[in-house]
Specification:
Blueprint (H helix, E strand, L loop, with lengths): L3 H35 L3 H7 L4 H9 L5 H14 L16 H13 L5 H14 L4 H17 L1
Length: about 150
Amino acid sequence: MISKEILILLVIIGVLVAIVGVYFAFKVYKQKNEKEEIEQPIHEVSKQRELTLRDLLDIVSNQNSSKSEITKAVDIFIAKFPFPKRYGTALPEDKGIKDYFNFVFLHAKHKSSDAKMIVRLNKELVAKNESYKLEIEEYEKRGLEARKAS
């Protein structure tokens, strides 16, 4: 028969294995929930709250965003995020203008953005923001070059 010490040792090992198993199961569950939260489709996020420019940048920077999510982000960007007013040739300070140009860059760079989408964004932005035409085209060009490089 098994001695008392061996039986106690087996029980302790069993309890430790159970604790480690529960720990890893909790860790995997937590990571899955965080990932689902991050990867919520744009339509679900927009129903919960008003989307910010940062949200749109997150969508176009995520290489897993679908073509429909990119299109929706572009629609919202065009409709709700007018460029800050520009006076003269200098860029406005403290207006986050770089985020606007970054959106153009990331959109052009994204693998799900096709030529029609890129041209549409360019035309609509230039039509609404003639004073930024050179910058819009420059950031689009940079995005297309980065896309080719990757």
